[in-house]
Amino acid sequence: MRNKKIIFSSLVLVGLLAGGAVWQLTRSSATTGAKPVATTVAQAEILDRLGVAVAGVPSTTETLPAVDRDLPKVGNHTSINFEQISKINPSVVYVDQAVADDYTAKLKQQHTPMHILNFNDYAHMRQSITQLGATYQQQGAAEKLLHQITLPKAHATKGVKVLILMGMPGGAFLVANQHSY
Fold it and tell me: Strand 114-117 vs strand 164-167: parallel, antiparallel, or unpaired?
C-alpha cells in the first residue's frame, strides 16, 4: 500500500512538472542579463515555471516549454555538446548532480560557470527550486511552485512484507525466506 502511495505521489509530481510546459509565467525583467543553460527537461520546466528565460535547452524528444522550443540545443545531461555551449556563452550551465563530475573539468577549461542541481529526491528538488528562486529573485514563483508540488507525508501503518526472488538460468526462480543466507 505504501509503495502505491509513493508511486502515485511520484506520478503527480511528474505530471505537475510536465504541466509547466503548458502554463507560462511572464518573463521577469530581473533575468534580463542572465543567460542560463538547462541540460535536463526538468531543469528547463522548473526555470520556465519560475519565469527565468534560458539561453539553451537540452536536446530531447520530450516536450519543452513553448518559449524554449526554438532555442539552441546543447545535448542532453549525459552527452553535453560543449561546442554549442561555448557558442551561447551562458552565464551559468545547470548540470544534474549525477553527472556533474563528468563535466566539471571541461566547463572549467571553457571558463563556463556551472551550478549543480540535485533532483535525486523530493527534498533535494525542493531545495534546488528554492535556491533557483533566490538566485533569480523569483522567491514568490518558487514558493507557489513548491506549494503546488507538496506531497502529503505518508506513514506506514503496518510492517512491510518483502518477497525476494532470484532468477536462475533456465527460467527458474528461488524465493528467499527468513532462513536464507
Answer: unpaired
Q: What are the tens digits of pLDDT across the range 91-102? A: 999 998 888 888
Q: Of all residues in the chain, what percent are helix, strand and coil, respectively (each to 5)?
A: 45, 15, 45
The length of the chain, given as a count of residues: 181
In the chain the beta strands, taken as DSSP E runs, fall at 36-38, 75-76, 79-80, 92-96, 114-117, 164-167, 173-176
- Our CA angle for 178, 180, 181, nearest 5°, is 125
The residue written with cell numbers 538460468 in the block is 169
Phi, psi of 163 (to 5 degrees): -115, 125
| H or E, element range at 17 | helix 2-19
Its pTM surpasses 0.90: no
State how far the alpha carbon of 51 is from the alpha carbons of 18, 23, 54, 100, in Å: 15, 11, 9, 25
Q: Which of 20, 24, 23 is nearest to 40 (CA)?
A: 20
pLDDT digits (tens, 9 = 90+) for 90-134: 999 999 888 888 888 888 898 889 999 998 888 899 999 999 999
Cell of 15: 505530471
